[in-house]
Write a structure and sequence with these properties.
Elements (H helix, E strand, L loop, with lengths): L6 H36 L3 H9 L6 H11 L2 E3 L6 H5 L4 E3 L7 H6 L13 E3 L1 H16 L9 H20 L14 E2 L1
Antiparallel strand pairs: 1-2, 3-4
Length: 186
């Protein structure tokens, strides 16, 4: 690897990355609307699968998936019922109960879904707790899953509440707490 030596070279590279990134976002958006329209018309979700799988490392796949599920007539495969398709690398299936909303898909960029936290955000407590709760609720509906270490988890949950209360009581300069979505920043 040959490093860039001058500020001008680095600035030119940064500007190029920004422009190519914007172009890639637009290309993904156009392709995303197109594969959703194809899935709606033909019931074939394989192009949706392929688009998500084609996303380069570092590009927000979960944002694309969230956007596709919001506007497309598709659903994620079920880990219990669709094991064979999942093993084949598939992600989606046609959902006849949903309608493809092309106008919304065109009007809202996929990058608006599942926004990334600010780079200086150290920890989003609400998001972490919500993720654990959602997973537990999902597992609770699955009789084939055994939940282990329940007593230890309850003790840790009590400790979590105490830790959050301690953080909340700290001076405002140390912890930034929001009302709906709390984030801690140092």
């Amino acid at each position: 690897m040959e490093l860039l030596k001058s500020v001008d070279q680095m600035t030119k590279a940064i500007n190029s990355i920004k422009a190519r990134g914007a172009k890639l976002e637009t290309d993904i958006h156009i392709c995303g609307v197109s594969v959703l329209a194809h899935a709606d018309k033909h019931g074939d979700t394989t192009l949706c699968d392929r688009l998500v799988q084609a996303m380069p490392n570092g590009v927000r796949r979960n944002a694309l998936v969230s956007w596709m599920l919001a506007w497309g007539s598709i659903a994620k495969l079920d880990t219990r019922d669709d094991k064979e398709a999942i093993a084949a690398g598939r992600l989606f299936k046609k959902d006849k109960s949903k309608k493809f909303d092309q106008a919304s898909a065109e009007g809202e960029s996929w990058t608006a879904h599942k926004p990334e936290p600010h780079p200086l955000t150290v920890f989003d407590a609400q998001k972490a707790v919500h993720g654990v709760l959602a997973r537990i609720q999902k597992l609770g509906a699955d009789e084939t899953v055994t939940v282990e270490h329940m007593a230890e988890a309850l003790a840790e949950a009590r400790s979590l509440v105490e830790a959050l209360e301690t953080l909340e009581a700290m001076p405002k300069g140390k912890v930034k707490a929001g009302s709906k979505k709390s984030t801690s920043a140092v």
